Amino acid sequence: MNAFRQDYSKGSLEKAALMDNPYNQFEKWFNEVVESGAPEPNAVFLSTVNEQAQPSCRTVLIKEFNDNGFIFYTNYESKKASDISVNPSVSLLFFWHSLQRQVRIEGKAFSISPEKSDAYFKTRSRSSQIGANISPQSNVIESREWLENAYQNFDQNQDQIDRPVFWGGYTVLPHYFEFWQGRTSRLHDRFIYSLNNKGAWTIKRLAP
Ligand SMILES: Cc1cc2nc3c(=O)[nH]c(=O)nc-3n(C[C@H](O)[C@H](O)[C@H](O)COP(=O)(O)O)c2cc1C
Fold this sequence. Notes:
This protein is α+β, with helices and mostly antiparallel strands. The protein has five helices and eight strands, in the order αβββαββαααβββ. Strands 1-2-3-6-5-4 form a six-stranded antiparallel barrel. The structure holds flavin mononucleotide (FMN). Flavin mononucleotide binds next to strand 2, strand 3 and helix 2. Flavin mononucleotide (FMN) binds next to strand 2, strand 3 and helix 2.
């Protein structure tokens, strides 16, 4: 494994250069990773914790972000949804290898309005709309054949496809951000933004 070792020297992060607001800082870094040509820069690791305090992590795609949160879409009967229903505290982790950067977010997940989920669902391809309808996400199924038959049956019998009630978006509203920039000799730059009791963001540097 030592053969994979890399030194990080693509950038640095100084307090003076940070935006006051973490959403603006996130947007700046997001634009830079898009420009770098990295594939799926909106892919994020979403961690949830269930009733027994067991953490679980999976990738989702962020479809929108602003100061109302980070929105992803999924099945409301999936494992992640079941975890969120008992414990809305979640964590998001973006790892942007092309720029040697990581953004870590902690916050709470809330389901978004049905109207907003409808609007997004309409923009999806027919095949994705069918998939959302027929896949009992996170449940055991008997075979690949079962899945493909369900897809074909749905496709043949539906003209216009509506969003199923069990599918929609969540927004993650952060109270904590960490921006990590890899540096040489493992002396990485880390800055955290946390919300103080007046609702303002405070910025601190952490040791790597
Ligand atoms: C690159 C990538 C993007 C994904 N995007 C989504 C997504 O936006 N929504 C989703 O429900 N699952 C997405 N998945 C699948 C999830 O990682 C996961 O397998 C699925 O949501 C079931 O998770 P759960 O059983 O923990 O609920 C994606 C997987 C990958 C690898």
